[in-house]
Structures are given as structure tokens and as C-alpha cells.
Amino acid sequence: MRPRIDQLADGLLDAMGGHETVDLIQAYAWPLPLQVMCDLLGIPADSREAFRTWTTIVTAGPTRHHERPA
Q1: Are 52 and 69 in contact (CB under 8 A)?
Q2: 59, HSE (Cβ side, Cα atoms, 13 Å)
Q3: Per-residue pLDDT for 61 more than 60?
Q4: What CA–CA distance (Å, rounded) separates 56 from 70?
Q5: Residue-averaged pLDDT of the chain
Q6: On the CB side of 22, how many CA atoms lie within 13 Å of its CA?
Q7: Residue 6: predicted pLDDT
Q8: In whole angstroms, how far apart are CA 56 and each of 13, 38, 39, 49, 52?
Q9: Which of 33, 38, 61, 68 is close enough to 43 for a disulfide, judged by CB 3.0 to 4.6 Å?
Q10: What's the pLDDT tens digit per position in 15-49?
Q11: 6-34 burial, b if ≥16 CB within 10 A, otherwise e?
């Protein structure tokens, strides 16, 4: 999976280029593992936003509150 992960990482880094400031969590640290998990699980592109929402709910648990990633 290394070539695919490299491709995803490069794409995310490229998307940050040209911005004066970047929220590294929102722009890189959240989407990279999420995309890798979706690839591993075979989640189609049109279902990834739902998967992202579900993972946010699960990781937040009953006592932690997170804003939904942009």
C-alpha cells in the first residue's frame, strides 16, 4: 500500500501549498488515515463522507465532544 499512501500524502500536501496558514489536523492528519482506512475496507468514494461522520461519532464517545471535521 505504500505507493497509494505516498500518492494520498503527496496530494494532501500539494493541496496545502499556496496557503499562508493551514490547519494541519484538518488538512492532513485527519484525512490521510481516513482515506487509507477507506481504501483498506473497500469503501467507495461516494460513501466516504458517511464513513467520516461515523468515525467521528465513534471516536468522540459519550464523554468527548469534537467538532465535525471540515
Answers
A1: yes
A2: 12
A3: no
A4: 11
A5: 84
A6: 14
A7: 97
A8: 23, 14, 18, 11, 6
A9: 38
A10: 999 899 999 998 999 899 999 999 999 999 899 88
A11: eebeeebeeeeeeeeeeeeeebbebbbeb
